[in-house]
Specification:
alpha/beta, 2 domains, TIM Barrel
């Protein structure tokens, strides 16, 4: 890909009924690999608090941390459509603070879109950030940042009443200025209705196959994570075991002295060792 994949191209994918492949990524090294694939969109998610820092929720992610890793991902994948996740308390404390923090992602990390976990209470935030000239991805359905309030995340839109509320909320988000939607953990049938009745691109995170695109966390895709995973997560490789075996082989090579060998060392120039030995004897 020679030019940056922008929001315009994402819209074109929806118009052409082409599926959008997106992943969540947190680091430069993985981003460089992603840049060599057909993946069009990368989200730097606040789930980095869990998968990078080892916390049990997304809540400890800070703005400084998120801006730093987002800028690293941009350096690794300069041509993807880059989306940044507004972390907990970066937009709930006031509209001016929300706009200022969103602007940091645009100015310091080069993102094209700002993702905001949004309930109806955040419609004014969506509007404020959009009015400030930034594209917003409104994240509805399961909202990991509410874990402290609700205690446990569960599938959304599984009853007619819940479904109707989500459909209405999706319309409100777009009316407020959202340029895209991310649906997390929403019943597939409901996600289909939202997508079919929405002009903006709709990305599914565990919300079935009928959306305009899909997103998974890169470590899950690569099979690098362990322990319980969301129902919708799928590994397309088993790099966890391959990584463990590679590290075991490295440790063994160090312990038995086979690494480093001659080819993995720097060496003094020809004739210089003899000269050095003479100097040391004087």
């Amino acid at each position: 890909m020679n030019t940056r994949f922008t929001l315009f191209e994402i819209y074109q994918e929806k118009i052409k009924n082409h599926k959008i492949a997106a992943v969540t990524c947190y680091d430069y090294t993985t981003a460089k690999l992603i840049a060599q694939t057909p993946i069009q969109m990368v989200l730097v998610g606040d789930s980095a608090a869990q998968l990078v820092l080892g916390h049990d929720s997304t809540l400890p992610a800070t703005m400084d941390f998120m801006v730093t890793i987002t800028a690293a991902v941009r350096r690794g994948a300069p041509n993807v459509c880059l989306v940044a996740d507004m972390p907990f308390l970066s937009y709930q404390t006031g509209l001016s603070e929300a706009v200022k923090n969103a602007g940091r992602f645009a100015a310091e990390a080069g993102v094209q879109m700002i993702k905001i976990e949004a309930a109806s209470a955040h419609l004014n935030v969506i509007k404020a950030v959009s009015d400030a000239g930034m594209a917003v991805m409104a994240h509805i359905g399961m909202l990991p940042q509410t874990i402290g309030k609700i205690g446990k995340l569960k599938a959304e839109g599984t009853t007619a009443e819940m479904a109707a509320q989500l459909i209405d909320l999706s319309k409100q988000m777009i009316q407020a200025g959202a340029s895209s939607l991310l649906l997390e953990g929403i019943a597939a049938e409901v996600a289909q209705i939202i997508t079919q009745n929405t002009e903006v691109p709709v990305i599914s995170c565990g919300s079935g196959p009928y959306c305009d695109g899909q997103i998974l966390v890169a470590p899950d895709v690569l099979g690098l994570t362990s322990g319980p995973k969301p129902k919708f997560a799928k590994s397309f490789a088993d790099l966890s075991n391959a990584t463990i075996e590679a590290l075991k082989a490295y440790a063994l090579a160090v312990s038995n002295g086979s690494f480093p060998d001659y080819d993995h060392c720097y060496h003094i120039k020809n004739g210089e060792l003899e000269k050095l030995q003479k100097m040391l004897k004087e």
